[in-house]
Design brief:
This protein is α+β, with helices and mostly antiparallel strands and 202 residues long. The chain contains eight helices and five strands; from the N terminus they run ααααααβββαββα. The protein is globular, with a radius of gyration of 18 Å. One of its GO terms (molecular function) is rRNA binding.
Length: 202
Amino acid sequence: MSRYRGPRLRIIRRLGELPGFTKKNLNRTNPPGQHGMNTKKPSQYGIRLQEKQKLRYNYGITERQLINYLRQARKIKGSTGEILLQLLEMRLDNIVFRLSLAPTIAAARQLISHGHIKVNNKKVNIPSYQCKPNDIISISEKKHSQELITKFLEITNQVSIPPHLSFNKENLIGKVHSLINREFVGLNLNELLVIEFYSRKL
């Protein structure tokens, strides 16, 4: 399944707030569609599917990518759900978003793909690049890159940066200090339901 490119507010109405997906505000809170007002209780499968979809839409990843991250998380010692979230949070596109260098993860992905972002002073144009503790995130010296990031910083001025990251606005340099703690993941989600959703498929 490819990345979603349709109406974003429709997804927000169905799944709830997804900070990395869109900054648009909702006028209506009921689910989309003809039966949006239907108060029928969702099935257990539906609940697990919804939690899985939150991950996919928020981080902008495909079904195949999510399955690969889950397989990778299972090989690492510890809670599979928390490790899965750490892998997604340490993606370069998400780090750029959490540093407030872009208003959404999709915008961060575009910045990276167009060569505006450096990691440890080397240009990286792969949004899925896995950042590690002590990585330095900086901006290309090109004037266009600097102006673009400054514009995005003005848009996302009120966003708080999680404690595993730091950012110097004067030098436009960010740093990854450690892996993220579960409490600072900026998504309202029960990751155990995602693990349960895939338990019979993997």
